[in-house]
Amino acid sequence: MDWRDFHVLAVLSSEGSLAGAARALGVNHATISRRIASLEADVGEPLVRRLARSTPLTEKGRELAAIATEMLTSAQRIERLVKATGSSLSGTVRLTAPPVFVSETLIPTLPSFRRLHPHLRLILSSDAQLASLDAGQADLAVRLVQPTGRQNIVRRLGEITYGLFASVDHAALPSEDWQFIGFDGGLATSPQQAWLEDYAAGRPFSVLTGDLYGQRAAAVAGLGVALLPEGTDAFVSKLVSVSKDRPPPRSAWMVVHVDLRSSPAVRAVADHIVGLFPKNRASG
Fold it and tell me: What are phi and psi of 213, to 5 degrees?
């Protein structure tokens, strides 16, 4: 039997659908179906029930998925331990972080980092969702919520502040005529959205989006006032600050899986990220 088929079964069990497994593994829907069909042929009986919106496992499928999940967990632990025992600054480090941090803060500093560590490769995920370090989706993460879990090493990096920005034309309107650009999706329940709704005090929201780049574009187009992260001039270019009012800052956290604490490559990336926050730069 092919281990890759069991890998797919384990991911399918956790995701609950062929489409979800395809997204998690970065392959197409047909590949997942082919792997499951191959495993079913080896086992000699169905392992999943193919429904319109989900793919629940049969009893035999659940039994095999439980074993496959244990195998996957062990394989991921082996990978982390091998990476941690490496003695050189080479190899691959997977980092997940908020999209604006990746694009506006981290990437502009990578040329100098690459000159210091030319044999180290970064895989950057700017997904707003929380990637799992335990599942091997990332080696290192920057998050805006305090991480939990005994298998993680956590460090507070500093604070991210937010301000109210709008186009010059919209900012020139009387404040009672302002419209707002709000958060949707995963950010709909964020502290920023709650603060912005209180600040708007009944004034309308013209656009809702969970993408900060979309919010910035809407503000540049003159559609309203957006609550955007401060500290990166390029991100708020073409916009003006419209108020000194702002929500409480949010803490940024870095998290590393405990198995990777001694990896030179992971430590080099972590040290670089720590230095990107002003307070850490000032303290050396």
Answer: -65, -35
What is the spatial distance between Cα 159 and Cα 144, in angstroms, rounded to a whole number?
A: 9
> What pLDDT score was predicted for residue 119?
87
Per-state percent for the chain, helix, strand, coil, to nearest 5: 45, 20, 35
Given a cut of 90, whether residue 239 has pLDDT beyond it is: yes
Alpha-carbon dihedral angle through residues 36, 40, 46, 47, given to the nearest 10 degrees: -50
Angle between helices 18-25 and 3-15 (to 10 degrees): 120
Q: What is the spatial distance between Cα 129 and Cα 138, in angstroms, rounded to a whole number? A: 12
DSSP string, 180-204: EEE--GGGTTSHHHHHHHHHHTTPP
Q: Give the pLDDT score at 134.
A: 53
Outline where DSSP puts E strands in the chain: 91-96, 120-125, 140-143, 152-160, 162-166, 180-182, 205-208, 225-229, 240-241, 250-257
H/E run at residue 165: strand 162-166
Amino acid letter at 259?
D
Rounded to the nearest 5°, which phi and psi values hold at 48? -135, 160
Domains of the chain: 3-83 (1.10.10.10), 85-160+251-282 (3.40.190.10), 162-248 (3.40.190.10)
Q: For 3-56, what is each residue's pLDDT tens digit? A: 888 888 888 888 888 888 888 787 888 888 888 999 999 888 889 887 767 778
Angle between helices 264-274 and 59-84 (to 10 degrees): 80
Is 252 strand, coil or helix?
strand
Greater confidence, 146 or 206?
A: 206
By CB atoms closer than 10 A (0-12, 13-18, 19+), residue 208 is middle
Integer Cα distance of 164 and 195 in angstroms? 11
